[in-house]
Design goal:
It contains 2 helices and no strands. By secondary structure, the chain is mainly α.
Length: 82
């Protein structure tokens, strides 16, 4: 398996990981809204925020790295030799 294929696969897996955590953030937020106001509610909302931020960051990093790795592959001529 060549490096460009590994880069593409890892980018896709990273985006899927981010989407999974985005869904988890939504589910945790829904759970938090069902609780009475208090410490448990606040902690659950904080956990939902942390999951949301981590998932958005993961998706952003995956897209950025995928674009830069594909640009590097094209500029180095790896795709032109195959």
């Amino acid at each position: 398996m060549n490096k460009s294929r590994i880069a593409k696969i890892s980018g896709v897996v990273y985006v899927i990981w981010g989407l999974l955590h985005l869904q988890a953030a939504y589910m945790v937020y829904r759970l938090a809204t069902s609780l009475e106001p208090g410490m448990a509610h606040g902690r659950m909302v904080q956990h939902a925020w942390n999951l949301l931020f981590a998932s958005v960051a993961a998706i952003g990093i995956a897209v950025t790295l995928k674009e830069s790795s594909l640009r590097a592959v094209v500029q180095s001529g790896w795709l032109a030799t195959k």
